[in-house]
C-alpha cells in the first residue's frame, strides 16, 4: 500500500540524529546543532542558547525501516458494490414482467402521456420508471417521472 509505518522505533526514535558516515562530526557543539537543526532542536529546545552541557542528543542506531499497511480498499468498495449488484439484479427480475400500454397521448410543449398497467405495481407521484425500447436502441434506457 501507499501508507507505511515505521517498525523500528526502538533503534530509530523520532528526532534522532543520523550521523554522516563520511566524516567526523562533533554533535555536542552548539554551533553544529544551531547550524544543522533550524526548526525544532533535539530534546525539545527552541533556541540554541537553551542547550547546555547536560543536553542529550539521540543518535540513531540504524536507518528507519518501514512496512506497508495491509490493503483495506476492498472493505470500502465491497459494501456499495454489493448494494449496486443487488439493485441491478432486482431491476433485471422486475423488468421481465410485462407492461400493458393503455394509451399514448401527445400534449403541447413536447409532453407525452403514456398510460400503462403492470401487475403488482402501484404508482405514486414523484416515482420514476426506466423505459427500454429495444426497437429504438438495444443499450439505452430512459428515466421518466410518474404523475397521477
TrEMBL record:
<dbReference type="InterPro" id="IPR017938">
    <property type="entry name" value="Riboflavin_synthase-like_b-brl"/>
</dbReference>
<dbReference type="GO" id="GO:0042554">
    <property type="term" value="P:superoxide anion generation"/>
</dbReference>
<dbReference type="Pfam" id="PF08022">
    <property type="entry name" value="FAD_binding_8"/>
</dbReference>
<protein>
    <recommendedName>
        <fullName>FAD-binding 8 domain-containing protein</fullName>
    </recommendedName>
</protein>
<dbReference type="InterPro" id="IPR050369">
    <property type="entry name" value="RBOH/FRE"/>
</dbReference>
<keyword id="KW-0560">Oxidoreductase</keyword>
<dbReference type="GO" id="GO:0043020">
    <property type="term" value="C:NADPH oxidase complex"/>
</dbReference>
<dbReference type="InterPro" id="IPR013112">
    <property type="entry name" value="FAD-bd_8"/>
</dbReference>
<dbReference type="GO" id="GO:0016175">
    <property type="term" value="F:superoxide-generating NAD(P)H oxidase activity"/>
</dbReference>
<dbReference type="GO" id="GO:0006952">
    <property type="term" value="P:defense response"/>
</dbReference>
<feature type="domain" description="FAD-binding 8">
    <location>
        <begin position="99"/>
        <end position="147"/>
    </location>
</feature>
Amino acid at each position: 500500500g501507499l501508507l507505511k509505518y515505521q517498525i523500528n522505533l526502538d533503534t530509530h526514535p523520532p528526532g534522532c540524529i543520523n550521523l554522516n558516515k563520511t566524516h567526523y562530526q562533533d554533535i555536542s557543539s552548539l554551533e553544529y546543532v544551531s547550524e544543522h537543526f533550524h526548526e525544532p532542536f533535539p530534546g525539545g529546545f527552541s533556541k540554541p542558547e537553551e542547550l547546555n552541557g547536560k543536553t542529550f542528543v539521540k543518535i540513531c542506531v540504524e536507518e528507519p525501516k518501514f512496512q506497508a499497511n495491509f490493503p483495506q480498499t476492498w472493505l470500502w468498495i465491497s459494501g456499495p458494490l454489493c448494494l449496486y449488484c443487488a439493485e441491478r439484479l432486482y431491476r433485471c427480475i422486475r423488468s421481465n414482467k410485462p407492461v400493458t400500454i393503455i394509451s399514448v397521448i401527445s400534449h403541447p410543449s413536447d409532453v407525452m402521456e403514456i398510460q400503462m398497467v403492470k401487475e403488482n405495481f402501484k404508482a405514486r407521484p414523484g416515482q420514476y420508471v426506466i423505459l427500454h425500447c429495444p426497437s429504438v436502441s438495444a443499450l439505452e434506457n430512459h428515466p421518466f417521472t410518474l404523475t397521477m
